[in-house]
Amino acid sequence: SKTEANYGVSLMDAQACAGSILEMPGGCAINEAQRGGILLLNEPDDSVRDALTVLLQGEQWRVVNAEDCAEMAAVMNSGDVVAVISESSLPNCTPEDILDRCKEYGVPVIFTGHDLPLQGAVDLIRQGAVDFLDKPFPQSRLLDLLEGLQSRKDG
Fold it and tell me: How far apart, in whole angstroms, are the C-alpha atoms of residue 95 and residue 120?
């Protein structure tokens, strides 16, 4: 599939990552120290996507990449998505589509971007986004947001 070619993990492997499998052939290794649930990453830029994936996996998060709303919906149907990190200007998916899908599943969303005016970012937060991170953003800001979401989920 296109997802497998672009990300090295098929949608089937991504959904299986939500289970208790110890190692996936597509590169999704799960170990005892990993956090529960999946972070769903919607990022069209290869270098940003790769950097965020490495950062998040280094923090023991399981990361699944989705190219569009259809792939996002398929992964969210697994029920194990704990948060969505999404570029605000995806080619085939509006921020409103992403927010609506996340609200359906009760999943928080953090938007990123570099071409949205301040009022647009405020509007996304008012509509239910956890935050908007203007690129380039400090890695610690994203990690702090995720830590807060994990604490709320665990507590």
Answer: 10
34 pLDDT higher than 80: no
Q: By C-alpha distance, which of 62, 104, 117 is closest to 85?
A: 62
pLDDT reported for residue 101: 92
DSSP, res 35 = P
> Integer distance in angstroms from the first to the last C-alpha of the chain?
38
At residue 155 the predicted structure's pLDDT band, cuts being 50, 70 and 90, is low
Q: What are phi and psi of 2, to 5 degrees?
A: -60, -40
Distance CA(80)–CA(50), nearest Å, equals: 22
Pairing relationship of beta strands 38-42 and 131-134 according to DSSP bridges: unpaired
All residues at 6 or more sequence positions from 123 whose CB lies less than 8 Å from its CB, including other chains: none
On the CB side of 63, CA atoms within 13 Å amount to 23
Name which residue leads in pLDDT, 144 or 114.
144
**Residue 92 burial (CB < 10 Å; 0-12/13-18/19+)?**
exposed
